[in-house]
């Protein structure tokens, strides 16, 4: 593998083997599960003790639940007896997680409560569901599969996002809609696609209609902020920022480079001139969220890690989960969130809410799958990245360094 | 592999790799095919010379037929010319097995009878269908894939079952129904599931309604025959045995431990108090079989090998075939047998006949597939077996020893 | 692999591993793509500049098109940017091939014409679509995947076929029909099947009804031309040849042995006594092609390579493409060609045109798939080839030698 990678140059796409080799995928997944925090869902999915949902990645199934103390907990969905899936429903409520095979029962802290006919000396306390590290930030539930003492620090992972999330009430939202987009492509191609907007004008007409053109040109691109052509855009941004700040709304941005442990980024930017939210016509599609008294048309984008992103608008938010399943198979899941008291049918229409990103994610599925097909053929050569694909260059370098391949 | 297994302890389930590795499966299959006798069907399926059925396991297809001398024969279903499947129908009658590719024709002894345009010196007698070892016991047709001289001795394989089969007429039965249950699980998980009734109360309500509860508690369990709580049960069993023996019906049991070449077991036990046969209400569902003059409610269970089991009731029998197909794919097939002169519609109803085990095998398919899913995930750890899973502990040890892994 | 092959003897089918091993398939494909010319289609599919069709083999997708100078060109269908499939339609017309991902645009010579926002120093001329070697013979478009300088000489590849194609107008034909037959078998079994007519009497009743019986007996068979039984047949052939030559029509034949680089063969022979073309009743099913003034009932068969064959009758031709997809997966494609001015419905009926070979290829799919199933089982042994399978013996030897396995 190192031989393959030795020919790689910064600023080009990765060697084909990294997108098609089953061995590389297995090692990727092992590294990802242990080193990264994976966004799984929102606390509104489990408001009460015993509420749960399942999260699946690779061959893993995770029970995410809330215990009697109100803490969010996550466990491997595998019985400590002979390994059966313990919980078969995708979501619901349980007082105990009782295995459908032999009725071993685990409480909401994963402790084994009942296991009949066990031999003398059997220690229930040593046979609880194996825990998975959990962190909650602004209502977002993250998991990490490292051994507990090796878990990356969750505060370090989230702290830079806090100022940009201030006042927007993400923690108080509720799920309004969700949809999955099974994609026949390696997870790194899904990430590459999300990290540049160079393809937007070709592939995403609706998205381009909604967002400010100059902003999209600057997304993930070489810094052109000194470019005289950008003067008007800079002026507009500065004015918008001043207005937002006057309202007490957050502004700002940061973006990691390849030396980061997580490859994080965030910013708060306006959708487009005159747009109040990320909808087809820029008009609100749900009630204001959080502490916001009025629309400012801003959107907080948080890339917690290459596989976990959230976009927060004034009236709704969208969670994006990129879930590696197999070498050439990634599940993309989107979850739309609205204010907690918004009523479906009255305050928002799920189809309208979903329209833009549903359209865009379907387009992304197609282009990413065609990317995979080409990468798997002999005609593929790692290609030179454009000035609008800086984040892909950095992501590639970050990936190779984290994996110890360069 | 030995490294993986070195952490295994008796009394726990096996390491995950043994259930998910393709290499382990290939080696398992090679070992099984050569060392074990596989139950394939019943002689009533091929009453006359030229009658045949196909048996499939892994990538193998076997022609099971009867020659003019009335002997049961089995052959690899692969032409000695260029390898085509010779017989494409699953069952039927042939005077000659003629390959659909080039019409090479084989007689019922597998001898090549016709092969046109062959070069001088071609020896027909050296180009018969490759034989597979066959044994018939009580009408049950077994095959083994070892070279003829390496075939395990069939008499040794069957002799201990004879006394328990006495008088029940299994050899004279006929097939009344059959059904397959394709199961996405490794063959060893299918066997594990069949070797314990610890899961019955959770997963098999119908089965538990039919069978005596104390008997199920004792199935594959630590010996508790001295336990005072079992006194009533022992008394009932003793009375039932005395009655059965008075009628001239067989009783008794044996069970191999991990040192056995075949891991065999058999017993004859009553279904439940007041039950005449293994039906939902304990009432007969077909005419008495064999020499039986009256019902005694007994059931002879014969585990010829972990993959080949037969249950013989007074009025019907059920054959269970567990057929490894791929690493995580096993076909379970059930064949229901009744007395030879029983008439469908008049003497038995196939749906009623099948009801209990069809229900139970569908449940088994579900729990075994959920077991496989969990075993394939990182949350699986070999778990401590209960006092009611002694046969799983023994089976695991037997498997590891036979495979040379411990 | 060499160990496996060391047991192989000339005149027998190949060891199973060569038909079932994924590693062997990968190496086969690598060798085939570089050393062989693959027939992909006919120039009538791309009459004008910008017309194109896609050709797929293994994981490869090839754009076959015509440039402004009228030259046929072929390119890897993978963008030089990040590898996406550039062209998604199977056939059509393009002025530029514009990638659906980021709109990189390539002209009909594969030159990169547009790529926005590329960094300084980016060299468009070094980022054209990767070319694939192309050769055109009698309207047939062949491709080869070697580096340009390593491409096998196309003139050498085709020159011996020219005399047998003379006057038949294949270059001027047009596509009348096409159909694919996805076949679950290794490509070598598909070739084996096509290289002998020993199976015809068993498997192809329609084909045998059409063709002269003695001719089929001689196809790919041991030379029996001195056999007194063949005297009548020889006399008929000699008379037919004299008539054909009197008309100025070509006759003759050649066949390579295992020392050939391509394993080529060709001949021109009569269909059958009284038959004018290869139709069910021997009667014409389309207008005469090329310079032919009248029917002579001849058929030119050209095996350009084991995977690329053409049959040219007086009134229509059939192209056969055998396309390796995966270890046990080969796509067989047939393309029927007729005179350029023949009108569908008036001059020919596609169903009638296709009938014989559609019937025959469906039969071939079945027998080849059953061959693969048998070869993959333990009952397979390389078998002795008949006197009518000389070309299979030679093909096997040729394959093993070309692959460096003997």
From TrEMBL, chains A, B, C:
The keyword rRNA processing does not apply. Residues 37-143 form the Rieske domain. It comes from the Bacteria. GO terms for molecular function: 2 iron, 2 sulfur cluster binding; dioxygenase activity; iron ion binding. This is Aromatic ring-hydroxylating dioxygenase subunit alpha. Its cofactor is Fe cation. InterPro entries: Rieske_2Fe-2S, Rieske_2Fe-2S_sf, Ring_hydroxy_dOase_asu_C_dom, Rng_hydr_dOase-A. It holds the Pfam family Ring_hydroxyl_A. Its EC number is 1.14.13.-. PROSITE patterns: RIESKE. Keywords: 2Fe-2S, Dioxygenase, Iron, Iron-sulfur, Metal-binding, Oxidoreductase, Plasmid.
